[in-house]
Design a protein that fits this description.
Helix content of chain B: 40-55%
Distance between the termini of chain A: 54 Å
Radius of gyration of chain A: 22 Å
Number of helices of chain A: 22
Number of helices of chain B: 2
Largest sheet of chain B: none
Oligomer: heterodimer
Order of helices and strands of chain B: HH
Strand order of the largest sheet of chain A: 1-2
Strand content of chain A: under 5%
Radius of gyration of chain B: 16 Å
Shape of chain A: globular
Largest interface: A-B, 42 and 39 residues
Order of helices and strands of chain A: HHHHHHHHHHHHHHHHHHHHHEEH
Strand content of chain B: under 5%
Number of strands of chain A: 2
Largest sheet of chain A: 2 strands, antiparallel
Chain lengths: 499, 66
């Protein structure tokens, strides 16, 4: 890739970056509440985002900058297998449609801000609450760090070296998140998503023309995989179950993360969520087409030092520099939205389920907002230090484990919406077993997401998070049979029926 | 629970049963089957959820200002 500074590209990049920064600070005045000094306002935008704002916010937050870089990179490297992101981001929506309105209702009725609030309310167990909150914070940290990786790739593509630009961009982000809360990423998401849509539509419309059509692109990719001796544009028979289990496991984990749940809780109504489950797949279509950029990299004959360079290198090779600059700005701005929502989600967890629970139970909503603001700063600085001082691989490995860990909060958060059968201690034990065994498997496999289970002379390879989830559910079910009932804290009586 | 909810399960069958679609033929516009089949599930899933939503509305389980 080019290492000289391209001033046209840099100029376009800076223009959009400054535009977004100004919007981030103005966001505090957008749909202005009486005060931002309340955790509902700072951390959930006042729970009043309608269908369109939620669509942009969750879309911008779930389909992250790192996705834009990493999915085409995985497709470039492995072929069809990298496409599991597509079934994953489709089957997640029937789940969101059916389950998230129930979760939203419980949160709304009881003024809950986080997943751990919901769990505490339902089971009255501080230990289970802490397990869910701690898992959420730890799983989110490497996710924020990966957004920085996405941003760094875009900045390097402009020919700028060193860490100073990344540090500046992130400090600016930290400052406007501090002052505007969730309103900042919600407002920026409009710009970010429109930019990403333009970039991807132009890329998938024009690039194949330059390369001889989609047929030629697939053909070139298949040739490249054959030469390399691994990968292919179809799955090998050993890849079928890993593909399906990764898609399912990822879909179940996706809305357990604090940043996606923050988007759900910030919605105005249950119908807002239902409509978004129908409308958000538009982003999936975009993601599927974006993934094909990996194959276009082969068709364009790119020679890359890192797989992650495939998207920036394509834009540099095939487009004028002003458009390349626009595309890199879209990716960098694309990192800001999820990074902001993630740090807000983590900060809400810390404030509600650690600070309020253990340090200062009498804290006012204004005090909560203040603690959350400071925590969101610290979380971002932490992620920045990780990226600067530790190898990128460390964040990648942790993010993989984070997915496995967050999936283990599924039974505690979701089962209680439907049944009183499960008991807090049993769920806690299931969580601990799933977390420990899953991490052990992943660790002993050399931090790979897939684990081979042998039975007799046969074996099957499955996503390790899903194996851990099954163990988790088995343990939680067995122990729930024997344990006494819990004492719920919440107001709502019976588990909500499907409405 | 209304049987219309079964519609929401169809995408799981269509996409997790991978052997069903791990093939190159038939192609459309140069896209092997594997790719256009999965992309086609995006609008199909939205449509299925819309049908579930409308039927819940008609059955009075979901109101407009819910």
């Amino acid at each position: 890739m080019t290492t000289e500074i391209d001033y046209t590209a840099l100029g376009v990049f800076l223009f959009f970056f400054v535009l977004v920064t100004v919007m981030g600070f103005i966001a505090a005045y957008w749909r202005r509440p009486e005060t931002l000094a309340h955790i509902d306002e700072w951390g959930l935008g006042g729970r009043q985002f309608g269908t369109w704002i939620t669509w942009f916010l969750v879309g911008g937050d779930f389909y992250t900058a790192y996705t834009v870089i990493a999915v085409p990179a995985l497709v470039y490297a492995t072929g069809a297998f990298g496409f599991f992101a597509l079934p994953y981001t489709i089957i997640v929506y029937p789940f969101v449609f059916a389950v998230m309105p129930l979760l939203w209702k419980v949160a709304k009725d009881n003024n809950y801000v986080t997943a751990a609030d919901v769990v505490h309310g339902r089971y009255g167990s501080r230990a289970l609450e802490l397990a869910v909150a701690g898992t959420g914070v730890i799983a989110t940290m490497p996710y924020i760090a990966l957004q920085l990786v996405g941003m760094a790739v875009a900045i390097q593509a402009l020919g700028i070296t060193g860490e100073i630009p990344l540090v500046i961009a992130f400090l600016v982000l930290a400052l406007y998140t501090y002052s505007s809360g969730l309103r900042a990423p919600a407002l920026i998401a409009f710009v970010k998503d429109i930019m990403i849509y333009i970039v991807v539509l132009v890329a998938i419309g024009i690039v194949p023309f330059k390369l001889g059509g989609y047929g030629a692109v697939f053909h070139a990719a298949q040739k490249a995989f054959e030469t390399k001796g691994s990968g292919g544009i179809l799955l090998s028979s050993q890849q079928i179950i890993p593909y399906a289990s990764l898609a399912l496991g990822s879909a179940l984990a996706a809305f357990m993360y604090p940043h996606t749940l923050t988007g759900v809780f910030a919605s105005r109504s249950r119908n807002t969520i239902r409509k978004n489950a129908m409308l958000l797949p538009a982003y999936t279509l975009l993601l599927g087409l974006l993934a094909l950029l990996g194959y276009m990299g082969h068709a364009a004959g790119l020679k890359l030092a890192h797989n992650n360079d495939v998207v920036p290198a394509l834009f540099q090779t095939l487009f004028p520099s002003w458009f390349a600059g626009f595309a890199f700005a879209a990716i960098a701005v694309g990192a800001l939205v999820p990074a902001a929502v993630m740090s807000i989600g983590a900060a809400n967890l810390f404030t509600r389920n650690f600070w309020k629970a253990y340090v200062h139970p009498q804290v006012t909503p204004a005090g909560e907002a203040q603690v959350a603001k400071i925590t969101s700063m610290l979380v971002k600085v932490g992620a920045l230090l990780v990226i600067i001082y530790l190898p990128t691989q460390f964040a990648l490995d942790l993010q993989l484990l984070g997915g496995l860990w967050i999936l283990q909060t599924f039974p505690a958060l979701i089962f209680g919406l439907y049944t009183r059968f499960f008991k807090a201690k049993a769920l806690l034990l299931g969580w601990a077993v799933g977390l420990t065994v899953g991490t052990y498997f992943a660790w002993s496999d050399g931090l790979k997401p897939l684990h081979k289970i042998a039975y007799g002379s046969d074996s099957v390879t499955i996503y390790v998070g899903l194996i851990a989830l099954v163990l988790n559910i088995v343990v939680a079910t067995l122990f729930s049979l024997f344990l006494p009932a819990d004492r719920p804290q919440e107001q709502a009586a019976a588990p909500s029926s499907i409405g | 629970m209304s049987p219309v909810w079964l519609l929401a399960l169809i995408p799981y069958v269509g996409l997790l049963w991978v052997t069903l679609y791990n093939r190159a033929e038939p192609e459309i516009f140069g896209f092997p089957f594997f790719y256009w089949y999965q992309l086609a599930w995006v609008p199909i899933t939205s449509l299925l959820l819309y049908i579930v939503y409308r039927s819940l509305q008609k059955a009075g389980r979901v109101s407009h200002d819910d």
